[in-house]
Amino acid sequence: MRSVVLLLLGIHMTCAAIHTLQYFYTATSGIPNFPEFISLGMVDGQQTDYYDSKLKRAIPKVDWMSTKEGPEYWNSQTQQRVGDEQNFKVNIDIAKSRFNQTGGVHVFQQMYGCPWDEETGDVDGFDEFGFDGEDFITLDLKNLRYITTKQEALITQVNWNKDKAYLEGKKQYRAQICIEWLKKYLQYGERTLKRQVSPQVSLLQKDPSSPVTCHATGFYPRGIIISWMKNGQDHHEDVELGELVPNVDGTFQKSSTLRVTPDEWKKNQYSCVVEHQGETKEEKEIRTNGGESVPIGIIVGALVAVVLLIVIGAAGYVLYKKKQGFKPVSGSDDGSNSSART
């Protein structure tokens, strides 16, 4: 039986000068008591609005969106999302037929949007579609064409690429309209989006034979570098870097795990180095559940939970991820972008 994994959608790491507007649309089938359609917007990794097929209305998710935009805006957003919902119900059925699928759990997604470099003025855009956690078709904005490696998406590729007006609309939206909305939202949420919050860093371990996790949380903006040092030198072996994950308060968390034997801990001095907004923190001690600190070479205490994957369900956003193939990203605000049929 196919399992369902609901994960936070990936968010692209950017430096502080690069801002992004992203939209995520998800159609599902075969998941009991779960919305058949979900949409949400994000500015610089912070969720700004939400709609689903059960709620049937678009709502703000941050104070600065609810205070800056009135009922007319949210009614307009609701009407657009209702249309998107109908289109995506058609899209997931078409995708299922292309892959000769009938029953079971399936997910069809679109991620679109635009980044803007505040320092250089450079702009870009993206539009990606996925089915059951794998790439389906993607916009090549530079060459103004859709590309795919899936045989099942070739019909869509041909139809969209021969519609020049449709492609020009995509280009105009991402190069101009999307950027204008992004700048407007940045003004709305300036106090929140341009704040700087330093990370809290902890070293966590379950038992003497377990790997050690360097966990940074509560930081904003999202750009962060986590690295390891061994005896004062950069260390890259047996290191696994985790995904960047949003916290419910709008800050972020990230971890890096180092796998070495207990004997290696005793013979060497290891430390975790976290760099954020020009500030560097170095952690050498493991923190236990009781709040104690002990040298990193001594393994004591129980496992401190590190929540790296947060299932939000109807209050957040989801990605059905069968493999590591489908990497979401994208944005826009007038809703006209997501109307295409596959």
From TrEMBL:
Residues 199-287 form the Ig-like domain. The chain crosses the membrane at residues 296-320. InterPro entries: Ig-like_dom, Ig-like_dom_sf, Ig-like_fold, Ig/MHC_CS, Ig_C1-set, MHC_class-I_related, MHC_I-like_Ag-recog, MHC_I-like_Ag-recog_sf. It comes from the Eukaryota. GO terms for biological process: immune response. The keyword Ribonucleoprotein does not apply. GO terms for cellular component: external side of plasma membrane; extracellular space. The keyword Protein biosynthesis does not apply. Residues 1-16 form the signal peptide. SMART domains: IGc1. Gene3D superfamilies: Immunoglobulins, MHC class I-like antigen recognition-like. Keywords: Glycoprotein, Immunoglobulin domain, Membrane, Signal, Transmembrane, Transmembrane helix. Belongs to the MHC class I family. This is MHC class I antigen. It comes from Ctenopharyngodon idella.
